[in-house]
Amino acid sequence: MTDEKMIQYALDEGFASAAVVDTSDIVFDPSFRPYCEENLCGQYNANYSCPPACGSPEEMKEKILAHKKALVLQTIWDIPDYSDTPAIKQAKSTHNTSSIQLMKRFRAEGCDGFIVGSGGCSLCKPCAITEGEPCRFPDLRYSCMSAYCIFVKKLADQCGMDYNCDPGLLAFFGMYVFD
Fold it and tell me: What is the 3-state secondary structure (H, E, C) of 71-135?
């Protein structure tokens, strides 16, 4: 599948912008991991897709670098009040649902890969890890950009995407990693 076709599929799925990059050009910064450990989202040690269960920063980096390319995905949301947690959660959920739909389409056309979400996996509430059970959807589970320690601002700049939008707008990022 061509890069152009993948980008078009992403735009058709409702993403504001998409770009293909070589995974070797992605900047990783393990100093981001402590943000996960602060557990502001409540998923640290409570979700298979989040630290520590997802893997160390080095393991997460290796997972990405084991593939050649990534389709960087951006959605932009009209959220006038950045303290509007329900609106932000809904926007992230929609971003990730669209990412999963896109992943299924790519896989159906023979382009295997996995997504990196905007926020940790929320396919099960609560995550099966909290019940001592195996992941119910290992084929669909996704970790967030922070869990991978991806320097999202540098990635956005590399792709020509706005990281900081105009007031009242909020951008979310994710990726589809593939060969």
Answer: EEEEEEEECCCCCCHHHHHHHHHHHHHHHHHHHHHHHHCCCCEEEEECCCCCCCCCCHHHHCCCC
